């Protein structure tokens, strides 16, 4: 089978299509003919040599978390899943025995990790991580959902966002950003989002964004947010200076959920503002498989339309990563092996 592998951790130029042996499923595994696999910034970190998870010893490395396609084979102990079933993968990998696996939520598993291997014609996955696709849902739509939408959904819940709340999403045009805007809309909340690009913001307005701020200047963004109102919740996947910004504009008692570090892995916290303002800053990673099931249902009911900017053939996977690096896209980029 063919796979788009990272053969050098130097950015998009380090992606090559390679031949690999066809995988065999273990007793509790399934093989999926991959029709679509969305990419995430997590994969780009790996490709740029900026992830502790993968180094030169692991090359060639096949990434790809968000797999959708058709089951082609199942292991001997798999029940309730047949070749021909259409599925999407929950990329969570959990130990099954720690207290969070026993009592939930599973995304807090003490040995939490993620599936990699979807940027290939066939993926070998844990059968119990497959969620069936509703009738009529195409694989490309399904592949856009897992990482970005599970993460945004969990963050909105961590921030206790509800109807009529005001939610601030710095960087509202990427995978997690667009998902946060769309899901905040489903929750009945009002949204403020930022981008460096007016054209991209315009597209996100069409997807439900209420207040778009085209700026990369933190003081300008601060002034504009303050004119609109004090956000009840901040969905922060950028980190860096955006943490201090989010904290300062947030209302008394508000919550900021943080899941990423695109703008920097270190942030300053104004301690006095935090305690006098009764503010809350929480970390958040992925969501649960049950969240994925709900999100797939929302999409099946057309209450959520996962935003896909472009699709790519497996041989053009390098172009997908270049588009992400160059901040060209709105929503998800999906490879169709
Ligand atoms: N912990 C978790 O479970 C989890 C899960 C998913 C993602 N994440 C993290 O969340 C972040 C977003 O992931 P993603 O896949 O949604 O990425 P993505 O699609 O590439 O996000 C693009 C967004 O980030 C903005 N952006 C890019 N570079 C920036 C910079 N240097 N400064 C400010 N804004 C910048 C873009 O703004 P413009 O519109 O201006 O281009 C755009 O809105 C990443 O840090 C990722 O690792 C974490
Ligand atoms: Zn566990």
UniProtKB/TrEMBL annotation:
InterPro entries: ADH-like_C, ADH-like_N, ER, GroES-like_sf, NAD(P)-bd_dom_sf, Zinc-ADH_QOR/CCCR
Biological processes per GO annotation: small molecule metabolic process
UniProt keywords, alphabetically: NADP
The keyword GTP-binding is assigned to this record: no
Coiled coil: none
Family annotation (Gene3D superfamilies): Medium-chain alcohol dehydrogenases, catalytic domain
Any one Pfam family match given in the protein's UniProt record, by short name: ADH_N
Tagged with keyword NADP: yes
Superkingdom, taxonomy of origin: Archaea
Domain Enoyl reductase (ER) residues, every copy: 11-335
Molecular function, one GO term: adenyl nucleotide binding
Protein name: Zinc-binding dehydrogenase
Source organism of the structure: Natrinema zhouii
